[in-house]
Amino acid sequence: MRRVLWFVFRFLVGFVVVLLGPDSAGASDVMFSRQPQNQTVTQGNAVRLGCAVLGLAEPDIVWRKDQTRIYSTDQMFLSLGELHWETFYSVRSVQQQDGGRYWCEVESGGQVHTSEPAWITVEGVPHFTSEPVDLSVVAGEPFNLSCAAVGPPDPVEVLWWVGGEQVRGAEPSPSTLHLTGVNSSVKFYCEAKNSRGVSVSRTGTVHIKVLPSAPVLLKVENLEENNVTVSWTPGFSGYSPLTSCSIQVSGPASAPVSGPVRVRVLVPPHRVSVSGLRSHSVYSLRVSCTNQLGPSPDSDWINFTTPESVPMVAPRNLTFDLSESQLTLRWAGLQENELQGKLQAYKVQWSLGSETQEPLLFKESWAFLSGPSRFLNASVQVSACTSVGCGPWTRPVLILPEPVSLQAPRSHLWSGVLLGLLGASVLGLMVAFGAHRRRKHSHFGLAFKPVTSDSLVSFSSARTFSRTQHPPQVNLDSLGVSLELKTKLEDVLIPETRLSLGPVLGKGEFGSVREALLKTEDAVQKVAVKVLKNDITASCDMEQCLKEAANMKDFNHPNVIQLIGVSLQRRPGRLLPVPMVILPFMKHGDLHTFLLLSRLGEKPYTLELQTLVGFMLDVARGMEYLSNKNIIHRDLAARNCMLGEDLSVCVADFGLSKKIYSGDYYRQGSASKLPVKWIALESLSDNVYTTQSDVWAFGVTMWEVMTRGQTPYPGVENSEIYEYLIKGERLKKPTECRADLYEVMHSCWSPVPRCRPSFSALVSQLQTLLLSLDSNPQPVPAPLLYVNLQGQGAGLPGQGAESRHTWTQSHDWISEGSGAALAIGGDYRFIMSSCGEEEEEERDEEEDTVINV
User: CA 432 → CA 249, 392, 420, 443, distances in Å?
Assistant: First the structure.
């Protein structure tokens, strides 16, 4: 009957449309001839909704569910007449998410027409509206669990499972489970059931809150003169959010922030800035984080050194002494905490009238200036300088001659009397000494030759022909060194009688290296002994030698040679003994000789690339250790690296070799000889030595290793090195050297010191290279682009016979790139040496060429 009525309705509608005509469609009202109907369907079955529109030609009928448009790729439209259309929405397998309110709509003339809504109700097993979630609780404290599910069909009941066991019976949904507390982690879930079946929720976990673990990956993100920014990664939170972290800072006792000081910050972020630090100081920092239960253990300490700054105060007590021959200036040096950095020099600024003169630089807290007349009526000021800059100036001091005293004639008379007494005393001592020498000569005759340090001494114990007299004990008091130096060396002083000197292993301008036997309580040890020459009498040379031995005392690294002890050798007819530095005996000698023998010896042998890179890595590790202890080597080269029995390399001769060996050295003015082919540009120009200048020398040492002992810069004289380097020239790539290895050594020769890699970075790069040698060869990195200094354009290294590595720096890069020169300025001809001699630019007659820097 319903179908018959439907066909009658369709006939009447069509008849009306025919009578009115097509043009009447736009004027007639749009109407829905069929509305969607409510349906209840079992989950998994099909469902279909229909909708028909009358009054529009080809309408766009849209289906919506809960305000959201439904996009269907298989929606079809059926024509029921000229202005009558029908469409359907169907779901083949209904699921719970398909349930909801549906309707259709169509737009006409800017107006949206909407059908009556219809509900699709899906019957099936319950579905969860609230499932268990993970919880974190304090052990033993009560807590609640909740679960909710709905049909249809209803009613829905909930069952709880905790730790694999059912707790309580079924109860209506939603359900809340109250637990009095647990002491260990436990899992739980709930079941929901109705007449259609049972649904199981997700499994949740109850975690027991514990103390957090220590933070990890502490790193310094930003380091400035007086503050540091540190970040870290939190450790395991202990199932409880971290609320704050405590930062412990420890520094020098004299610093504003001395250890330990704790700073508490809220987190996140896991980052903190600590201010109020002292410049150029070593600090340690660690972190502990707190959750609801309490703090975590402390992380590992992270160490950092704040950058240098300019001195905070001016030197004090500036005085002068004016005589006919010179002007002497003296002032009080600054303390370490006042310098805020490493002292580079004291700058003396003087002005005559209103005209300021060229400043002078001095290493010590005094200055001897010749030509005192040019300083009369001059105003003098002094400032201390670090590599960052110079600090405040002292108050100006006016240089005026002393007033003439009426007692001058009487003063001259007393001076004459004193000089006469002094001359008589010296003459008496000379006569007494001559008589003593004649007695010794008449007693022994000329039977014995004088003993020298180069004489071969038997390895047997020393004996004496005198049964009644014993040689006097030689100690540090006889040298007249400072109390501080005596204290450092007392525990490493070895009596001379325990040493038996053997053959000479090497000689130099200032001394020799001997093989020796050192007697201990229960054994005899072969050692190497560095002995100063007998004709070296300057106390400053001896004290400098002992100071550097004292610095070696605390070295403890497998790639840095260690000090065994210091001994003092008696010298006949001399007041001062000879210092002897006792070092371990290295079986394979120095690295340079070892490399030369592998190539030019009577029985050449092959050294694999892995072995050569291993040598470089050992040297880099040793230099990393020294640089971390703020020690500058100043003479790093293959000849100053020693090979042990297992072919491990030890860095040696730090600070000593410059006074022992003389090969490949060049004398600059009247200063000490310099290894110019290993020296960095800034050291050649302004005599400034830093860790970055050691990195330059390390690059040259890498080149020595790869060429197996060749002399750097073949064909370039010592006197030409500075001009050669300032043009941008560098050591060429060795024939069998990998491109990536050459890039590492080439980076050590940047004209800007701060652009060179640190020794820590070099260790990391060489370790990576060494690992790559055991695997497939890595692709050669793309060549770097360099700009020619002469303005000939850009080119790639290795392209053409004239291509070379250069830098985009002007010819005066040293004045721009050297931190010390930039900060200090002034005339470097007056920088004082450690022994009090002016390092003036004088030509040394013993040398063939002179570099004028």
Answer: 66, 56, 19, 17
The answer to whether 273 and 229 are in contact (CB under 8 A) is yes
Phi, psi of 131 (to 5 degrees): -105, 160
pLDDT, tens only, 7-25: 555 555 555 544 444 444 4
| Domain chopping of the chain, boundaries | 2-122, 127-208, 216-305, 316-398, 493-585, 590-775
791: left (phi over 0), alpha (psi -120 to 50) or beta: left
Given a cut of 80, whether residue 98 has pLDDT beyond it is yes
The token duo for 702 is: 């890498």
- Find the mean pLDDT for residues 188-207: 93
Q: Residue type at 397?
A: V
**What's the CA gap between 403 and 834, in Å, rounded?**
35
The amino acid that residue 186 corresponds to is V
Can you say whether the dihedral through the CA atoms of 649, 651, 656, 658 is positive or negative?
positive
User: What average pLDDT does range 725-736 have in this prediction?
Assistant: 91
Architecture of domain 127-208: Sandwich (2.60)
CA distance 620 to 648: 12
Q: In CATH terms, is domain 2-122 a member of 3.30.420.270?
A: no
Which helix H or strand E contains 355, and what residues bound it? strand 355-356
pLDDT at 402: 67
Helix (H, G, I), strand (E, B) or coil at 337: helix
Token pair 């160490």 is found at 303
Q: What is the arithmetic mean of pLDDT over 310-316?
A: 91
390 beta partners: 385
CB atoms within 10 A of CB 567: 24
Which residues partner with 146 through β-bridges? Answer: 176
pLDDT at 537: 52
Q: Give the containing element (helix H, strand E) for 784.
A: none
Strands (E), 109-211: 111-114, 118-123, 127-130, 135-137, 143-150, 157-162, 165-172, 175-179, 186-194, 197-200, 204-208
* CB distance 78 to 4 below 8 Å: no
Please state the φ and ψ torsions of residue 354, each to the nearest 5 degrees: -100, 5
Give the type of residue at 477.
D
Q: Is residue 767 over pLDDT 90?
A: yes
Reply yes or no on domain 216-305 having CATH 2.60.40.10: yes
Read off the tokens for 361. Answer: 């630089």
DSSP codes, 547-599: HHHHHHTT--BTTB----EEEEE--TT-SSPEEEEEEEPPTT-BHHHHHHHHH
Q: First CA to last CA across the chain, in angstroms?
A: 119
Q: Which CATH number fits domain 493-585: 3.30.420.10, 3.40.50.10420, 1.10.3720.10, 3.30.200.20?
A: 3.30.200.20
Spatial CB neighbours of 813, under 8 Å, sequence gap ≥ 6: 681, 726, 751, 752, 807
- The span from the CA of 566 to the CA of 428, in Å, is 37
- Does pLDDT of 622 surpass 80? yes
Mean pLDDT of 320-346: 87
127-208 and 216-305 share one fold: yes
Q: What is the mean pLDDT of the chain?
A: 78
Neighbours of 531 (CB within 10 A): 22
What does the alpha-carbon distance between residue 519 and residue 689 come to, in Å, rounded to a whole number?
39
Neighbours of 298 (CB within 10 A): 14
Task: Determine if the peptide bond prior to 152 is cis (ω within 30°).
Answer: yes
Contact 450, 572 (CB under 8 A): yes
List strand residue ranges (DSSP E) for 45-99, in order: 47-54, 62-65, 68-69, 77-81, 84-91
The 10s digit of each residue's pLDDT in 269-294 is 999 999 888 888 889 999 999 999 99
| Phi-psi category of residue 609: left, alpha or beta, with phi > 0 → left and psi -120 to 50 → alpha | alpha
CATH of 590-775, one of 3.30.1380.10, 1.10.510.10, 2.60.40.1120, 1.10.600.10: 1.10.510.10
Active centre residues (catalytic): 635
